[in-house]
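Fill in residues.
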């Protein structure tokens, strides 16, 4: 059965997730995280992908990024994946696959959902009960987007920049968004859209993407068609 073609329009942000095979650990030391981060920066630059938010968990990775050229996210992830597997296998004297097949992704509506994806990604260590505050976790973009830490990897999205013209107030406004957890329905919608390669956004946004790409962006309704009784 042929692989489902990815939908990756230029300029539309995507949430990307890559998991370890059988949920196995992909990062076991600080050096692993540093190596992955460095190659992500290199390949994002090479293939023209803007990285807005990320979190590197023990057995998976989340990215929020925007492609500037056709197929650039796939090229970045393929190159990054191969490079990191070579490093990991050599370092830990192992062979075979590391990643759980192809990465998963969904398109993200900038206007209403992009900041929610920032929060979804950077709150991942909190939901996993690894930390109480996202600032405590060093392998995410939270310290950049919320505390102003310098980064060569992060490219702020225009929606993020538009939250306030003054950088200090922008950081303060961003931190305020993390005082509350994400709605459980939104979390489920994000997960479903990512796992199925669809879109997270309004019905209008999904309709526009379907018209642009010819690909369905909404889950199919389950069950048999309703038949009226005579």
């Amino acid at each position: 059965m042929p692989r489902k073609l990815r939908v990756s329009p230029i300029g539309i942000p995507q949430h990307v997730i890559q998991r370890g095979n059988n949920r196995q650990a992909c990062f076991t030391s600080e050096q692993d995280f540093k190596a992955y981060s460095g190659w992500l920066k290199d390949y994002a630059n090479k293939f023209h992908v803007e990285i807005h938010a990320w979190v590197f968990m023990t057995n998976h990775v989340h990215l929020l990024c925007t492609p500037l050229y056709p197929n650039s996210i796939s090229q970045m992830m393929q190159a990054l994946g191969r490079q990191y597997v070579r490093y990991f296998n050599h370092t830990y004297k192992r062979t075979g696959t590391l990643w759980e097949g192809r990465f998963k992704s969904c398109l993200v509506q900038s206007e209403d959902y992009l900041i929610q994806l920032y929060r979804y990604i950077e709150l991942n260590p909190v939901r996993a009960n690894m930390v109480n505050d996202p600032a405590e976790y060093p392998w995410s973009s939270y310290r950049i987007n919320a505390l102003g830490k310098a980064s060569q990897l992060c490219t702020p999205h225009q929606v993020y920049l538009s939250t306030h013209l003054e950088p200090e107030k922008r950081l303060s406004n961003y931190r305020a968004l993390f005082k509350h957890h994400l709605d459980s329905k939104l979390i489920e919608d994000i997960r479903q859209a990512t796992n199925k390669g669809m879109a997270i956004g309004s019905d209008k946004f999904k309709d526009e993407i379907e018209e642009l790409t010819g690909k369905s962006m909404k889950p199919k309704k389950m069950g048999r068609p309703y038949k009226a009784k005579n």
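The CA atoms of residues 222 and 228 lie 18 Å apart.
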